[in-house]
Design a protein that fits this description.
The protein is an all-beta fold and about 80 residues long. It has a single domain, classed as SH3 type barrels, CATH 2.30.30. It is built from no helices and four strands. Strands 1-2-3-4 form a four-stranded antiparallel β-barrel. The chain is globular. The two termini are about 15 Å apart.
Length: about 80
């Protein structure tokens, strides 16, 4: 799932983001969303978020999770 729509991303979600310094090489960083920083409902390069570890970047992928439990299905 792409991270371009604000409504698809929530605090507690596990996401892959690209940090500003990694944009040129496209390196992704995985973490848990602490807060959403982009105010608009859509951003073509990804919604900007702050992770629980303090890193800030644009969401490139949202990890799959179950609807009821909210836990990753990738584990």
């Amino acid at each position: 799932m792409a991270g371009t729509k604000r409504s698809e991303i929530h605090p507690g979600d596990t996401v892959d983001i690209v940090l500003k310094q990694d944009q040129a090489i496209g390196r992704l960083t995985r973490g848990v969303v602490k807060e959403l920083l982009t105010g608009s409902q859509f951003h073509p390069h990804g919604i900007k978020v702050r992770l629980t570890d303090g890193k800030v970047g644009r969401v490139k992928a949202i990890q799959a999770k179950t609807e009821k439990s909210g836990k990753d299905t990738n584990t």
